[in-house]
Amino acid sequence: MNEFLQHSYGYMWLILALPIAAFGVMFGVTYENRRLSAWIGIIAALVADLVSIWVLLAELARPQHLQQGLGIFTDFITFADFHLTLGILADPLAAMMVVVVCSVSFLIQLYSLEYMRGEEGFVRYYAFISLFTFSMLLLVLSPNFFQTYIGWELVGVCSYLLIGHYFKKASAAAAAKKAFLVTRLGDFPFLVGIGYIFFRFHDLDFFSLASHHVYTAGLVGTSGLFVMGMLVFSGAVGKSAQFPLHVWLPDAMEGPTPISALIHAATMVAAGVYLVARAYDLFAASPAALAMIATIGAVTSLMAAIWAVGQDDIKRIVAYSTISHLGLMMFGLGVGAYSAAVFHLFTHAWFKALLFLAAGSVIHAVHTQDIWEMGGLGRRMRWTTIATLVGCVSAAGIFPLAGFWSKDGIMSGVFAMNNPAFIVVAMLITFFSALYTFRLFFVVFTGETAKRRAFDPKRIHENGPYILAPLAVLAVMAAVAGLWGSPLFGHEGFGNFIFYGQKPVVEPDNIPAIAFSLTFALLGVVVAALFYYPPLKRFSAASFNRRFPYAYAWSHNKGYFDEVYRSMFVGLALVGGRAVEWVDKHLVDGFVDGLADGYSLGARYLRRLQTGRVQAYAGGVFVGVLVVAVLAMLLGSNGALASIGGPR
Amino acid sequence: MEGGAYIGLGHFLVVSAGLFAIGIYGLLAKRNAISLLMSVELLFNAANVALAAFARFGYGTVQPLAGQAFALFVITIAAAEVAVAIAILLLIYRVRGTVWVDEIDLMKW
Amino acid sequence: MTLHMLVTVAAAVNNITGATAPPATSSAPQFLVSVIVWFPLLGALVVMLLPNRGEQDHGNIRNAALFFTAIPLVVAFLANFSTWTELGVAYSGGFKFEENYKWLGAFGAQYHVGLDGISLPLVWLSTILFFVAVLASMGQKKRVKEYFVLLLVLDVGVTGVFTAMDLFLFFIFWEIELIPMFLLILIWGGPRRSYAAWKFLLFTIGASAFLLLGILILYFKAGGTTFDMQTLSQAKLAPELAAVLFWLFFACFAIKLPAFPLHTWLPDAHVEAPTPVSVLLAGILLKMGGYGIIRICVGFFPGAVQKYSLAILTFAVVSILWGSFAALVQDDMKRLVAYSSVAHMGFVLLGVAALNTIALNGAVLQLFAHGLITGCLFLLVGLIYDRTHTRSIKELGGLAQKTPYLAVAWVVAAFASAGLPGFIGFIAEFEIFIGSFSAHKVGTFLAVFGVVLSAGYLLWMLERVFFGALKEAWHKLKDPGPLELGYMVGMLTLVFLFGVAPKVLTQLINYGLAPLTSRIPGGGA
User: Fold this and answer.
1) What is the pLDDT of residue A283?
2) Burial readout A162-179 (b: 16 or more C-beta within 10 A, e: otherwise)
3) Between residues 204 and 263 of chain C, which touch chain A (CB distance below 8 Å)?
4) Rounded CA gap, A100 and A111, in Å?
5) Positive or negative, the Cα torsion across A430, A431, A435, A436?
6) C316 sits in which H/E element
């Protein structure tokens, strides 16, 4: 291995140290200085990014026989026979993800210089981004379930803090809470799952668990492995907004748009997919678990894609698109297309961050999020339009942009399963993805400017360099990142990388799968054009909605999940709480108070004996003594009262 | 024992019991606090008679002299008790103008 | 393992012969524990003698109280340092800083105190919290002298309980704590203080009855010669007798903890008690229950604990869910935090029910963690109440706009309480879950659900109190002053520091627990 690249591992701690140091400095020292604080965050992310690219290059040059993560480890808690360790792990998967996190974090912060200019809580915003970056990296670089869980919770909190950035807005505060609670609903089985793994294997380290083949050693039965897998997967379901815990992500759009791009598109929500990929040996040991993952992924992906078509808020469309793509990754992992799914994680980060930032650019210019109040922006915001187009083509999975190369692998994997239902669902996902993506593009950027908007369309202008530069970088990545998985980098270039140089199973490219998926994607674009692109417009969405009101309502209202959940879980929790409260007040306290009341009631009558008449007392004493004396005589010296007196 | 009237333990105890009964009657039935005090004296003396009798005639293995000692002790106590009680009674009389115990029931519930 | 066995045996021999054994560590200060325990009593005497007329005198009284709680704090951390060095070299369980004197020789009670890995964290906790409680009482205007005297006497009681190594002494300290707490609630409490104080007294007196009965039975059945806890813990008892004794002690400690269904005194006492007293009540007094369960129930009757672990588990799970659900619907912030205490103390029981090294370690750590974190929460409720004169969540709203520092402190404390990594509470709960899962699967699963609920009620409260639109009534609200912010930052820093470096505590607790776990049937691995 190249000497220079080898050195990179020694500096990996910087990747973690810089963002957290930036967070500390911003809150502790430079809180009053907005510009300086922002640049501290940006530089920290940039340096961390450079180090991570260095590490990635080292990983690329890693010799094949080293099938282990490298890293630094430290004991966190020690028991006689067991250590909880923290560490920094370097392996291909982590190295890839770290580059994504650091790069997007850097670009987002640059972008925010302009986007968030003059906002209240500017430094707080930057500080939390740095904290988030640290937490996410802690998760990504984690060598074991314990540290993963720590990072897992920390990114959740950062997400909470950043979604609630505009905390004066009640809806933002509610969305922040909802995001944290819904993900925590997934986290608690995850925690139990960690307990289960520890109980069975007495180990939480990813690599020693995998390398000793503990999952397949028969220590746990089939059903046990399935349960274990599902418990861990629950965490991923929550974090990656999979059905049925997907409801928090669209609401999370209450946060500033760059946050949506960073946390709710590129990095944190991908953590669930990352976890499944990281602990893949566990899932691979249980076919039932894999099937479950595939099913949940497919269902999520399809539903989210359909819901995205019915949304009017530009950020919500992209948010459902994110859910759909995350579902697709899970689908891919479930059908065994491991490297393709991980690769999609990689490409998705770029094009989805791009789409969000482009949406942010639009929002920054027109100050609305309703796509029907936009329209015709193509002429006024040329660069943003081009960037969005790149993002849309990539997201729709159209040759030759990034999304295509990762999606084709997943599609090949789905076709290889020979399950007709999966294939149909996959095609529908492809179709709807293209449909909603290009619906967004056509409605926002083509045609006439909408009349509803209150202010003059002429005042709309392109944003400044701090917004456009990140867009440009991301657009380039969204266009070319897929080439890593293309034949240009050799057969299975990315797959070989992820598997330490030698992918165990070589999957031949499934030409029908790719052809089908490309066809359906193009079909989706065509349908979108027929509905929404003015020069080609043949159908009216309004009349379609009139004809199929229930379909539209179901899509527009996201399947009514929010309503059902609100009444079910929130209602149940409150009813439970009140029931408990009632029992406490009336039964438990009723018993205790009743005891006290009974006591005082008895005393109220018994105290009448206290007449205050000295002769009554004397009489009482006399009678008492008499009774004792008589008893003593009756029972005699052998009786129980013998001990009072008398001869022996 | 043989022939003639012999005064034994039983006689003393009868006297003692009689004194005790009178005392109890006085204690429970009289209303005047002074009478009560006198009744208490009777009770004491009933006990004293019994103690002295037991000391004289013996009872089991009990040390004979203990009875007399106790009787003397009781007499002392009784004297002290009367002194204190009379003082209290005088005060009560001054404050409340009565020594009839059924009218003195401040200590009721 | 053998080493601390030897230490235990040696200590037991010393006790039987009645020798005033010198502490095992010759370098350690001789009267360290006694200073921690009795110094506040000296303080109480001094405060009693101070003049009490004007504001000037009140200031002197406060400062005196501060001084007499600060010294034990410093001394307790001295114990820390001398224990540190031993940690690295030879400390492997057993008691340190022992003081053993003949006291009531007629029936074998001794003045025997000491510190081990279980009690030291709790002594740290109580010295910290008493110091902070006095700091938080600086604004106390009503009957200042009596207030601080009672606070200082209370201090004696609780530190005594944590350090006593003689069951008779333990009981006396246990009772010493009762009356000051009762009076503190009764005199300085809120509108329903009388009800709350009597309820507290009734419950805890009832608890004491079980305790006394248990102690006496144990004393006589074990030969009636000594109250020494280490000797008694080794007593050979019939399993049936051990079971009866276990339930007697458990009943007492479960009331104090408190566990469902004996918990209802807690919300009332908390709501009525003044802020610093709430802090002490939740921060330390509940810990006496947890400490008792671990020290006596687990330490003396591990077999019975194992036999009835399912029952303990039931109490634990019901307490956790019960407290969490009840906390969800509370409108009074103090009541909410009080119910959350019920839930968090349920985790201690969960750890005890699991009866293995990791879970017990987590249980002790949870005592420490909950003491600090809930102390913070009560202080924060107090800071809001001082400013708004209400604790009703409904009436508050949008406070973060006017009191940013308070809001930050609240968010940090709430997340710490919800078991966020980076704070000490997480480590404790993680250990308990990991350990508990090997013993009880379904129970653990249900208990872990409490974590979701705890995030639920805390975040929902934060949302309604601090976020959203600012209500009209609070436009003139101000952030707390430097003193309040000072002790809040101090407490939260501790919560954080122990959270990122828990090894300090877990190691200590591990050594402290070793003699206990070695006696658990089946090894307790």
Assistant:
1) 86
2) bbbbbbbebebbbbbbbb
3) 261, 263
4) 16
5) negative
6) helix C309-328
Q: Are C208 and C248 contacting, i.e. CB atoms less than 8 angstroms apart?
A: no
Which residue do the tokens 């129930």 mark? C297
Whole-Å CA distances, B19 to B12, C27, C297: 11, 77, 62
d(CA C142, CA B61): 67
Q: Which chains touch B (3 or more CB pairs under 8 A)?
A: A
pLDDT at C30 over 70: no
Residue C79 backbone phi and psi in degrees, to 5:
-55, -40
- Strand A82-90 vs strand C96-104: parallel, antiparallel, or unpaired? unpaired
The whole-angstrom distance between C36's CA and the closest CA on chain A is: 29
Question: Kind and range of the H or E element at A610?
Answer: none
User: Which chain C residues touch A185 with a CB distance below 8 Å?
Assistant: 452
Structure tokens at A27: 């809150």
Q: What's the rounded Cα separation, in Å, for the pair A269 and C384?
A: 36
pLDDT (tens digit, 0 to 9) for every residue of chain B, 109 residues total?
A: 455 567 788 888 999 999 999 999 999 888 898 999 999 999 999 999 998 888 887 666 656 677 888 899 999 999 999 999 999 999 989 998 888 888 887 777 6
Most B CBs within 10 Å: which of A606, A615, A623, A625, as the mutation test of the B interface? A615
Helix, strand, coil fractions of chain B, as percent rounded to 5: 75, 0, 25
Contact in structure between C305 and C296 (CB atoms under 8 Å)? no
Contact C361 A79 (CB under 8 A): yes
| Chains C and B are in contact, defined as 3 or more C-beta pairs closer than 8 angstroms | no
Q: Is A79 helix (H, G, I), strand (E, B) or coil?
A: strand
User: What value does the CA radius of gyration of chain A take, rounded to a whole number of Å?
Assistant: 33
Query: What is d(CA A438, CA C133) in angstroms, rounded to the nearest whole number?
Result: 63
Predicted confidence (pLDDT) at residue C138 exceeds the cutoff of 50: yes
The pairs formed by A595-599 with CB atoms below 8 angstroms and a separation of 24 or more are A596/C198, A596/C202
The amino acid at A207: F
Amino acid at A631: L
Strand partners, B26: none
Of the candidates C264, C467, C502, which has its C-beta nearest A164's C-beta? C467
Helix, coil or strand: residue B7:
coil
Q: What is d(CA C405, CA C479) in angstroms, rounded to the nearest whole number? A: 7
Interchain contact C421–A (C-beta under 8 A): yes
Residues present in chain A in total? 648
Q: Which residues pair with A78 in a beta bridge?
A: A83
Q: What is the DSSP letter of A536?
A: G
State whether residue A645 sits within 8 Å of chain B by CB: no
